[in-house]
From TrEMBL:
Motif (Meso-diaminopimelate recognition motif): 402-405
Domain Mur ligase central: 109-304
GO cellular component: cytoplasm
Key words, A-Z: ATP-binding, Cell cycle, Cell division, Cell shape, Cell wall biogenesis/degradation, Cytoplasm, Ligase, Magnesium, Nucleotide-binding, Peptidoglycan synthesis
Catalytic activities: UDP-N-acetyl-alpha-D-muramoyl-L-alanyl-D-glutamate + meso-2,6-diaminopimelate + ATP = UDP-N-acetyl-alpha-D-muramoyl-L-alanyl-gamma-D-glutamyl-meso-2,6-diaminopimelate + ADP + phosphate + H(+)
Organism: Duncaniella freteri
Binding of ATP, residues: 111-117
Gene assigned in the entry: murE
Subcellular location(s) of the protein: Cytoplasm
Recorded GO MF terms: ATP binding; magnesium ion binding; UDP-N-acetylmuramoylalanyl-D-glutamate-2,6-diaminopimelate ligase activity
Protein name: UDP-N-acetylmuramoyl-L-alanyl-D-glutamate--2,6-diaminopimelate ligase
Modification N6-carboxylysine occurs at: 220
EC number: 6.3.2.13
GO biological process: one example: cell wall organization
C-alpha cells in the first residue's frame, strides 16, 4: 500500500524523508520487521518501542512512525512524527486492512463485569436471527462459527482489524466486541467505527494498572466520548456512574435498568439455579440464566437488539434460546444432589453478585461452600475484600491458588486472610493446591449444598512462574463428582 494512503487518516506533526513509498507490511513489534515494512514505535507500560527503532531499521524498515526522532537518522528511512503513536497505529491498522469496521455493525461492550456475557450473547442472538456475525472476546474470537484463540480481552489494533477483515470477507453483518479499560486507555480501538457502545457497571478492578478508580472510570468513559453521532450509547442507569458515561458522547443516549424507569427495563419474576423468568419492557420471557447480574446482561442485550433495528418479538424469542457463556455461572450437578457453579468472578463485586444469585434461589439457610483465590501480580487491595465478601455469604470458604503468576501462592492467600475476622477464620480452610481445594469442597458438601468455584471460569490453565499449566475448574469438578459417587 502507498505510504500516503496509509497515512491519510493520521494526524502528523512532521515527515522527514520520502513520502512516496510502497509499504509491504505494518508492525509495532521490531522482531516482525521485514524489508519495506512500516514500524510504529509505541510507548508501552513496560517497553517503549522507541528503544527498538534502530533494530527495526537494521531489519529493513523503510518507514518509522514515532513520537520523537531517534538520535541517528537514516537517509533510507522515512520518519513520520505524530502526537501519539498508539492512536496513529489504530488508524494505520484500519487503513491497512481496508477499514473493515465500516463494513460491519460493530458493537462495543465495556464495564468491570458482564462484558464477556453481554458481547457473546449479542453475537449469539444475531446468529439466531439469521445474520452472520463475529465476536471479539476474552474467551475466544469467532468469525461466524470458526474459533480463533485469544490471549487478551482486546487485542492490538492490527489483530483487531485483521479479525474484522476476516468477518467482513466472510459476509458478517455484525460484530460484538469487548472493550477493556486497558484497550481504551492504550488507544487499541482508535480508528474503529462503532455502531453502538454498552456500559455494564463499574467496580474496583485493574487498579494495579490505572492506580485510581477515577482513572479507571475515565478510561471506560473515553470509549463513549469517541463514539460517532451515528452510533447508540446504552448505559446501566442503576450504576452510580452510568450517566457519567454519556456526558460527552455524540451518540444517541439510551438507558437500561432493573430498578427504575429506563428505555429498557428488566424485572425478575421468578428464578431458579437453572434459569429465570424475566420481564423485558413488560413482556415475560423464560431464560436459561440465573442471578440479578445476568438479568442486567440480558436487559442490555435486549436493548442492543432493539437499537440495532431488530424486531422486538424476534429478539425476545432469541433471548429465550440463548445459553450461558462457558465459565459464567456454569452449573454442574452430582448424583448426590450437590450443585457446583463455576464462574469467572475475580473481583469483589463479581463474587458478591454470584453469591447473591445463589442465595436468591436457595435462601439464606442453604449451605454454600466457596472456593476462591486471587491472581498474582495484580491489584493486591482487592484480595482481603474478596475473602471477606465470600465469607459473609458462605457457610464455608476454601482459600486457594488462582493464577499466582510470579508471586508465591502462600503470600496471596495471606493477603486474602487479612480480610477475615476471627469468626470467619473458623469457617475458612487454607488449601493452596486448587485441585485439592475443589475435591475438599466436594467431599464436605451434602445433598442440596451449592459449591461456588470462583475466579477462573472458562480458563483451562493455571499460570505459575510464567508457565501456563493445563487446569480447568470444570474438568476438576466433574472428576471430583465422579469420585464421590
Amino acid at each position: 500500500m502507498q505510504l500516503n494512503k496509509l497515512l491519510s487518516p493520521v494526524e502528523i506533526s512532521e515527515i522527514i524523508g520520502c513520502g512516496d513509498k510502497e509499504i509491504t507490511g505494518v508492525t509495532a513489534d521490531s522482531r516482525q520487521v521485514r524489508d519495506g515494512y512500516m514500524f510504529v514505535a509505541v510507548p508501552g507500560v513496560s517497553v517503549d518501542g522507541h528503544a527498538y527503532i534502530h533494530k527495526a531499521q537494521e531489519s529493513g524498515a523503510s518507514v518509522v512512525v514515532c513520537e520523537r526522532l531517534p538520535e541517528q537518522i537514516s537517509s533510507s528511512v522515512t520518519y513520520v512524527v505524530v502526537p501519539s503513536s498508539a492512536i496513529a497505529l489504530g488508524y494505520i491498522a484500519s487503513e491497512w486492512w481496508g477499514n473493515p469496521s465500516r463494513e460491519l455493525h460493530l458493537v462495543g461492550v465495556t464495564g468491570t463485569n458482564g462484558k464477556t456475557t453481554t458481547a457473546t450473547l449479542i453475537y449469539e442472538m444475531a446468529r439466531l436471527l439469521g445474520y452472520k456475525a463475529g465476536l471479539l472476546s476474552t474467551v475466544c474470537n469467532y468469525v461466524e462459527s470458526t474459533p480463533y484463540h485469544t490471549d487478551h480481552t482486546t487485542p492490538d489494533p492490527l489483530t483487531i482489524n485483521e479479525m474484522l477483515r476476516k468477518m467482513a470477507d466472510a459476509g458478517c453483518d455484525y460484530c460484538a466486541m469487548e472493550v477493556s479499560s486497558h484497550a481504551a486507555h492504550q488507544h487499541r480501538i482508535a480508528g474503529l467505527h462503532f455502531a453502538g457502545g454498552i456500559f455494564t457497571n463499574l467496580t474496583r478492578d485493574h487498579l494495579d494498572y490505572h492506580k485510581t478508580v477515577e482513572a479507571y472510570l475515565n478510561a471506560k468513559k473515553s470509549f463513549f466520548d469517541n463514539l460517532p453521532a451515528t452510533a447508540f450509547a446504552l448505559t446501566n442507569a442503576d450504576d452510580k456512574v452510568g450517566e457519567v458515561m454519556l456526558q460527552n458522547t455524540e451518540a444517541s443516549r439510551h438507558t437500561y435498568s432493573l430498578r427504575s424507569e429506563a428505555d429498557f427495563t428488566g424485572r425478575i419474576v421468578e428464578q431458579r439455579l437453572d434459569g429465570t423468568l424475566l420481564s423485558l419492557n413488560g413482556v415475560e420471557v423464560e431464560t436459561m440464566f440465573t442471578g440479578k447480574f445476568n438479568a442486567y446482561n440480558l436487559t442490555a442485550v435486549y436493548g442492543a437488539g432493539i437499537l440495532l433495528g431488530w424486531e422486538r418479538d424476534s429478539v425476545l424469542r432469541a433471548i429465550s434460546a440463548l445459553v450461558p457463556v462457558a465459565g459464567r455461572f456454569q452449573a454442574f450437578h452430582s448424583p448426590k444432589g450437590v450443585t457446583a457453579i463455576v464462574d469467572y468472578a475475580h473481583t469483589p463485586d463479581a463474587v458478591v453478585n454470584v453469591l447473591q444469585a445463589i442465595r436468591e434461589v436457595i435462601g439464606q439457610n442453604g449451605e454454600v461452600i466457596t472456593v476462591v483465590g486471587a491472581g498474582g501480580n495484580r491489584d493486591k487491595g482487592k484480595r482481603p475484600i474478596m475473602a471477606r465478601e465470600a465469607a459473609a455469604r458462605s457457610q464455608r470458604v476454601i482459600l486457594t491458588s488462582d493464577n499466582p503468576r510470579f508471586e508465591e501462592p502462600e503470600d496471596i492467600l495471606a493477603d486474602m486472610e487479612e480480610g477475615l475476622d476471627d469468626e470467619a477464620r473458623t469457617r475458612t480452610l487454607h488449601i493452596t493446591d486448587r485441585r485439592q481445594a475443589i475435591r475438599t469442597a466436594v467431599a464436605l458438601a451434602r445433598p442440596g449444598t451449592v459449591i461456588l468455584i470462583a475466579g477462573k471460569g472458562h480458563e483451562d490453565y493455571q499460570e505459575v512462574k510464567g508457565v501456563k499449566h493445563h487446569f480447568d475448574d470444570r474438568e476438576e469438578v466433574k472428576s471430583a463428582f465422579s469420585e464421590n459417587n
